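User: Okay, second chain of the day. Same drill as before: sequence in, structure tokens out.
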Amino acid sequence: MAVFQQDDGAAADIVVNNAVAWHDWTTVLEQDEADYDSQFRSSVLHNVLMAIGGPESASCDPRSAGRSSIEGSRASTGI
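Assistant: Same drill. Structure tokens below.
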């Protein structure tokens, strides 16, 4: 696992790499295949963006007028 650094060169305080798309709760065996696929893809995308740009690429920036940094990273990387 790579160690991410903040703009000032300090190591990131917290990195969470298990965020997934939200769907109504159900058991794994009862879950719709499309919901499972969506959760898997969102988890993989989150990890890819974290590797590309560090924690800032997968967080919401209040200065972005409602547009999350993850959307900007996706646009800049073609993902």
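Residues 28-77 form one domain.

User: Thanks, on to the next one.
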